[in-house]
Amino acid sequence: MASPIRPATPAGRRERKKAATRRTIAETAMSLFLEQGYEAVGIRQIAAEADVAVTTLFAHFPSKESLVFEQAAGFEERLREAVLERTDARSVIDGLRREIAALVQHCTTGDAVGVWQMIEASPELASHAQVLELRYARVVADALGDRADVDISTTAAHTIARFALASFTIARKSPRPRRALDESFALVAAAWSATTPE
After folding, report:
1. Helix H or strand E encompassing 104
2. Rounded distance, CA 92 to CA 86, Å?
């Protein structure tokens, strides 16, 4: 006799439960970090407050700092799409600027301001933020190299990508973020035009 086919609904419930657990852990951790300071909070305390086992926490977050930067993967994918999904090579820089501008806007308003103050006050988190910026730049450089309609050297792709991602940090720390981003991306666009002449 054939084995019964398991319905898809339970798998959906499991995924929703996993997502809810991840969200609870991240929100609990951030609340504790902002109340007590990043260095003062331990993994066991986070797990206890979130009502999960330490092993469950690590199943969702591989390190303590990843609890702070839990949306990093989503931004990485948006940057890749900003480069690869543009139909016209001339609009690639516009797509990148739009994505980075959205992140700058998010990070310089509301609760995110306090989070970034915490990040900059912690050597561990500040170092991790720099590592992420370099990782994002590699993602952008690789995406630029993957475009069939763009003839760009590896050196140029990495230089432009590094400058584009540095503009996020420059703008986020500026008292006038939008102006800083506009100025930075005018230079990025100029480098792009010089590297990829029509």
Report:
1. helix 92-107
2. 6
What pLDDT score does 6 carry?
A: 40
* Token couple for 174: 């500026």
Rounded CA-CA distance 45/47 in Å is 5
Q: Taking the CA atoms of the chain, what radius of gyration do you get in angstroms? A: 20
Sign of the Cα torsion 81, 86, 91, 94 reads negative
Supply the pTM of this predicted model: 0.83
Q: How far apart are CA 159 and CA 183, in angstroms?
A: 17
Token representation of residue 62: 């591989």
Distance, CA of 64 to CA of 30 (rounded, Å): 11
- What span, in angstroms and rounded, lies between the C-alpha atoms of 93 and 194? 13
CA atoms of 112 and 119, how far apart (whole Å): 10
Query: In this predicted model, what pLDDT tens digit does every residue of 108-156 receive, in sequence order?
Result: 999 899 999 999 999 999 999 999 999 999 999 999 999 988 889 999 9
Task: Find tokens 């993967």 and name the residue.
Answer: 73
pLDDT score for 195? 85
Joined tokens for residue 66: 């990843």
Q: How far apart are CA 87 and CA 84, in angstroms?
A: 8
- The predicted structure's pLDDT at residue 1: 38
Helix or strand or coil: residue 88? coil
